Amino acid sequence: MAELELLYRERGEHFVRVAAAVAGEGEAGRDAVQSAFATAVRKRASFRGTGPLEAWLWRVVVNEARRLARERRTLPLDETREPSTNGRPHDDLGLRAWMATLPDRQRAVLFLRYYADLDYRAIADVLGIEIGTVSATLSAAHDKLRIALREVR
């Protein structure tokens, strides 16, 4: 329990940023992290201890963020609403919008790598995929974003 609390205190904002990216909105990311940590506390006994606790927790957070994203997709879209920037500087290149168009796995791998700063092995563990799949997925995401940026320019 103390380890979970320490992870929440030290890495909470990293979890929120990734969850927000996966879920598609900052507030949904916060909800996902809160729910994921509550689940982790309840299901702590299911952690087998074969890997780092943080990797197991990332899996719980990403799964919850994906669940919230699926729920959001079933809601009617408000086309007049501007995308949330969460108090961050304006995105002149539209990178956030382009990232939102990536398939779920590509978006998750991208954020786990660059926002959560996880290595390929940890990402593979979190998403339940092979390391080679992480590499290929990250490469495909880079390619799509590179093409989108060329179109903008």
Q: How many runs of DSSP E, i.e. beta strands?
A: 0
CATH architecture: Up-down Bundle
Shape label: globular
Let me know the CATH homologous superfamily: PhyR, sigma-like (SL) domain
Over all CA atoms, what is the radius of gyration? 16 Å
Low-confidence runs: 75-90
Number of helices: 7
CATH class: Mainly Alpha
H and E string: HHHHHHH
Please estimate the helix content.
over 70%
Mean pLDDT: 81
Largest sheet: none
Q: In terms of structural class, how would the helical and strand content be classed?
A: mainly alpha
- As for the number of domains, it is 1
First-last Cα distance: 50 Å
CATH fold title? Butyryl-CoA Dehydrogenase, subunit A, domain 3
Strand content: under 5%
Features:
globular; 153 residues
Walk me through the structure.
It is a single chain. 71% of the residues lie in helices and 0% in strands. It is mainly α and 153 residues long. It has helices at 2-23, 26-42, 53-74, 95-100, 104-114, 120-127, 131-152. The longest helix has 22 residues, at 2-23. Helix 1 (2-23) packs parallel to helix 3. The chain has one domain: Butyryl-CoA Dehydrogenase, subunit A, domain 3 (Up-down Bundle). The protein contains 7 helices and no strands.
Give me the secondary-structure topology.
Elements: H1 2-23, H2 26-42, H3 53-74, H4 95-100, H5 104-114, H6 120-127, H7 131-152
Summed up, what is this model?
Helices cover 71% and strands 0% of the residues. By secondary structure, the chain is mainly alpha-helical.
